[in-house]
Amino acid sequence: VTVWDNTAPEEIAERIADTEVIVSNKVRLMEPVLRDAKNLKLICLAATGYDCVDIAYCAARGIGVCNVPGYSTHSVAQLTVAMVLELANHLSIYREFVHSGAYSRSGVANSLTPVWHELYGKTWGIVGGGNIGRQVAKIAEAFGCRVIVNRRKADADFETADLDTLCKEADIISLHVPLTEQTRGMIGEKQIGLMKKTAIVINVARGAVTEEEALAEAVKEGKIGGLGV
């Protein structure tokens, strides 16, 4: 076993040249660097996402690829909800208002801006109905939200909707899909145009499942209510 704590892109090919099994995380293993690894039989990813591996090339070469689909379900769901709560409650802004002394100097008992949003009764749209998406959906229901899910198959536990309908109806939209050719750029200008101006968008998937510049502009221009990535 040879262990490398860090591997730069230009070091990959040399380091895997004679190996039979690769265990890696956050290293791009695409055809150009895999081509000369003649003994390679298996790639084990210490992560859920596998878009950093050239799956088609590995299939053609007979190289097995494994990932870890369940290890981050609860932590990513927790992060998702934490970002939603920050963007709905603006807790950090109110904390600074008090901490700086501005609240005491204002002489006003209640500061009402930025507007604080109660999640109860809101519609939470989940894009991707895998382990993480379903965990977030359960938490959203516990807050009293109506949950709608966009996924490839019908879901017996949650209401499902096509992506355009979800974008129109949801107050909160969270993304939990792998990066594939089908999901790349799935949230773009068209979908943003369908969203409510108060919509909170959370992307805990790969950045490229959205048109990132379009989302950034949407926040700046007030086309959506908030963005967490």
Describe the 3D structure.
The structure is a single chain. By secondary structure, the protein is of the alpha/beta class. The protein has helices at 12-16, 31-34, 55-61, 73-89, 91-99, 102-106, 131-142, 163-169, 189-194, 212-220; strands spanning 21-24, 42-45, 64-66, 123-127, 146-150, 159-160, 172-175, 200-203, 226-228. The strands form 2 sheets. A 6-stranded parallel β-sheet has the order 6-5-4-7-8-9, with helices on both faces. It has a 3-stranded parallel β-sheet with strand order 1-2-3, covered by helices on one side. Helix 7 links the parallel strand 4 (123-127) and strand 5. The longest helix is centred in the middle third of the chain and has 17 residues, at 73-89. The protein is elongated.
